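Appendix C reproduces, verbatim, an entry submitted by the partner laboratory led by Prof. M.T., so that reviewers can inspect both the input and the predicted structure.
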Amino acid sequence: MQTNQSQQPGQTLNGAESLVKTLLACGVDTCFANPGTSEMHFVAALDRIPGMRCVLGLFEGVVTGAADGYARMADKPAATLLHCGPGLANGLANLHNARRAQTPIVNIIGDQATYHRPLDAPLTADTEGWARPVSVWTRTAQRADQVGADAAAAVQAACAAPGGVASLILPSDVCWDEGGQVAAPLPPLSAPKVSPDAIEQAARWLRSGQPTLLVLAGTALREAPLADAHRIAAATDARLITPMSNARVSRGRGRFAVERVPYSGDAARARLAGIRQVILVGAPPPVTFFAYPGKSPRPYPEDAQVHVLARPEQDLADALARLADALGAPAVPVPDAVAPAGIAKGAVTSEAVAQTLSALLPEQAVVVEESVSFGRAFYPGTVHAAPHDWLQLTGGAIGAGLPLAVGAAVAVPDRRVVALQADGSGMYTVQSLWTMAREQLDVTVVVLANRKYAILLGELAGVGANPGKTALDMLDIGNPDLDWVKLAAGMGVEGARAVDMESFADLFAMANKRKGPFLIELVI
């Protein structure tokens, strides 16, 4: 077993110590944790071995969502630390979102000792079986002297393009047994490049004169690849679009904009009517969020041809640059920035909030959007805001927004994070506020308090339901009203309530200039 310099000759390590040292050697220096009894040797190792930043979450969904947000901004994985199968189960929803975002995460899960597991103690579960559907790699360590090598393999698997969750399960005796070995980092698995034939074929599709849609996802939504995509669009009249939900989009003044497939199936089908060719760049074929009676689940015409330029695991930026060159597409200037209209006044509407965000968003902010129904105008209405990155809920499992903000703030501490958070989904992981306070993270949380699951009211209409009081009561979270200012205060986060656009603008501007977290409850 190859070891690195962090393990001196004759030094005795247990499995947990070899895990921590190997993670650090592989560049994993942040751990989001909610440990339990089975993980105490890992916790003790973190105390003895310097270099790992440990961030505590009070619920496993906060831990897994924070690891997702961290990696989206850091472009490298964090580790999680979860307690046995049930702890993993509590974190699965945001691991599902991370899987959809293709986020690299080293997912460490403690488990029963190998000799204790056959006795069926209360926490015994099919931990590996639960981890596998959200993971690109899953392994249960068997011996202390293998833990380091397992950890290095987990990091390599998580970082392999396009990225994913690598789940390493550690029985407690494997952690406390001596004989641990520190493994050297494994070589990264670089993203393969698209073949010359694929580039030439895509150029022929684009030269055909047929109305063509380029669907961009993943790393194709960073600043340089977006510029190349616009070169292609300008040279061929192709249209550019992204899936409705994306892990990270580079946006704002001085950058090229790209629209998203609308959430509403009817609106999406209207937007994409007439398309004859769909070319995928790291994206799956577009699909509506849900099925509805008598309506197509495809937002593009049924008879459109679907082609693939690049699969998600391929080098998307290189593919777009080479395709633009093959088309002889010259560079195109970024459209002139339109000065924001200024701070909105009066009643709170989606458009008014977008206008104020566009005027006041800090330079290089990270926007985390889980605005669900009310935020329909936020993305299109902030195209001329200061340069920023836009992170979204990717897998549809609500409760990602506040944890994503935690992770992003840890990853880029020199940038303000703005979380646009619906109140209903915010309650799924409200414990994130405590972690923001504990870590003094620079996060401005804007809670959109309409006191209902408004998105589900639309879904009831979409399936032709005629709801009565019982149905409507299940979608109402205003009896009693949630008091987000008091909830935040109870977790150490200062907050205030805004009831109109003037008070929102004042609070938003103030919050972004101060250190640490601040919550604005925006009453809708």
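The first strand starts at residue 30 and ends at 33. Additional entries are available on request from the coordinating office.
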